[in-house]
Write a structure and sequence with these properties.
about 40% helix, globular, alpha/beta, Ald_DH_N, Aldehyde Dehydrogenase, Chain A, domain 2
Length: about 500
């Protein structure tokens, strides 16, 4: 193990951001970009620059991949349970740093500390503990092929895994990629999101106290200059990506050129169906959680299409708006804040553009909550949540992924029509059903075209719940044993002729 001096917790996110500025982590060491270039990391709540990230390119990618390839030779030979113990130990150490990680991710992404960032930091640690305990499941089978032959299969690691992660929940989504990859015997190179490079770098730093050097490397940079070379590198044998559909297509094409496997977790336009017999208060609370108001709607599983039975529609909308109005928008680091910011100016303009498109299409935009009145936040990227009513099913906010605090509420009366409407999307990531009738729930969950369907609840993805989409929402599954076995190993068949 690469046991360096224990890293103390630093809960001052501003000081920590400066400490981490300008580095990749390659081969167990904090290093500058080969070019020496950096780019600014900005606090979206104030517009202030809080640090810099190393601006990686092909030379940095090659250095990281070569380190990972060298480390994998010994890592794959380590007994699986020993690898699992080290990964679980990473989780234990990350637990000790939950508060500093939560504060830093709130600073660089604008996600509220109490409602979002602290929760994510805890899930991060849990994911490593969860996968560490699954190491003994990396087992093969005996095959009854011929009585004179001993035929068995065994699971083997792929090699070097390239992981490209997004900015909305970077800690959790990174953990769900690299934890199973490491336990399975692979080594990893992560390309962070340019909007959120610092907290994941801190995670890598903490984990490199435990893991052998080269097993976990992290780069920051932009897609074409850093992500592209990572996917294309000849020693990368697997790519796992979370992000937009358009970028996912680029990643998939590049991986196809090398004929290597790829896992894609892409966009969503998740429907929520509330039947007349649903527990209304429970459904409203589920919508508040499902739209991800506290995350400014920046979630691919967000319930951005809500279908409510005509008999309870008006009451549902009134209660949903009242709940959203009661939420406080403010400084992400303030414990009183419920709703933080949009992550970047570009994303803010995208969200505002969709709101205007909805209005132009004749929808009623019900504004919720209130913008913060603190002068220090006047440059912050704050958008009031919007509940659209009386909007066409063909309007852009109804059909396209916004990734903002916007949801469209539709009336329905007919069961067959609402199922058809819910499925009328190019996406198929998540869906929820709200009813007290078991038959309705069973039938709807079978017929909805989504990879992650829930009844009378709206949980976010977490370890031990297989997660992934169909249609344009992606390829493959994450967060489960199946993800480790199917996406981070290949199966070898071995035959002993006993005749």
């Amino acid at each position: 193990m690469n046991m360096v001096s224990s890293i103390p917790q630093n809960t001052d996110p501003f000081a920590l951001a400066k400490e981490l500025s300008g580095f990749h982590l390659i081969d167990g060491e904090m290093v500058k970009a080969v070019s020496g270039k950096t780019f600014d990391v900005v606090n979206p709540a104030t517009g202030a620059v809080i640090g810099q990230a190393a601006d990686g390119d092909e030379a940095d990618v090659d250095r990281a991949v070569q380190s990972a390839a060298a480390a994998q030779k010994a890592w794959k030979k380590m007994p699986a349970r020993e690898r699992g113990k080290l990964v679980a130990e990473c989780g234990r150490r990350l637990t000790e740093h939950v508060e500093e990680l939560a504060r830093l991710i709130a600073l660089e992404t604008g996600k509220a500390l109490r409602t979002e960032s602290r929760v994510e930091a805890n899930v991060l640690a849990d994911a490593f503990v969860f996968y560490g305990g699954l190491a003994s499941e990396l087992k093969g089978e005996s095959v009854p092929f011929n009585p004179n032959m001993l035929t068995v299969t065994q699971r083997e690691p792929i090699g070097v895994v390239g992981a490209i992660i997004p900015w909305n929940v970077p800690l959790m989504l990174m953990a769900l990629k690299i934890a199973p990859a490491l336990v399975a015997g692979n080594t990893v190179v992560v390309k962070s999101a340019e909007e959120a490079p610092l907290t994941v770098l801190r995670v890598c730093q903490i984990m490199n106290e435990v893991l052998p050097k080269g097993c976990f490397n992290i780069l920051s940079g932009f897609g074409p200059e850093c992500g592209g070379p990572l996917v294309a590198h000849p020693k990368v044998g697997k790519v796992t990506f979370t992000g937009s559909v358009e970028t996912g297509k680029i990643v998939s094409k590049a991986a196809a050129e090398k004929l290597i496997p790829v896992t894609l977790e892409l966009g969503g336009k998740s429907p929520m169906i509330v039947f007349a017999d649903a527990d209304l208060d429970k459904a409203v609370a589920g919508a508040v959680a499902g739209v991800r108001f506290t995350r400014q709607g920046q979630s691919c599983t967000a319930s951005s299409r809500i279908y409510v039975h005509e008999s309870i529609h008006d009451e549902f909308v009134a209660k949903l708006k009242a709940k959203a109005d009661a939420m406080k928008m403010g400084d992400p680091l303030d414990e009183e804040t419920d709703i933080g910011t949009i992550v970047s100016p570009d994303q803010m303009e995208r969200v505002k553009g969709y709101i205007q498109k909805g209005i132009d299409a004749g929808g009623t935009a019900n504004l919720c909550s209130a913008l913060p009145d603190d002068p220090a936040l006047k440059k912050g990227l704050y958008v009031q949540p919007v509940i659209f009513t009386d909007i066409s099913a063909d309007a852009p906010p109804s059909r396209e992924e916004i990734f903002g605090p916007v949801t469209c509420v539709f009336k329905f009366t007919d069961y067959e029509q609402v199922i058809e409407a819910a499925n009328d999307s190019e996406f198929g990531l998540a869906a929820t059903v709200w009813t007290k009738d078991l038959h309705t729930a069973m039938d709807a969950t079978q017929r909805l075209e989504a990879g992650f369907v829930q009844v009378n609840q709206n949980l976010v993805v977490q370890p031990n719940l297989s997660y992934g989409g169909i249609k344009k929402s992606g390829i493959g599954r994450e967060a489960s044993l199946e993800a480790m076995l199917e996406h981070f190993t290949h199966k070898k068949t071995i035959i002993f002729n006993m005749g």
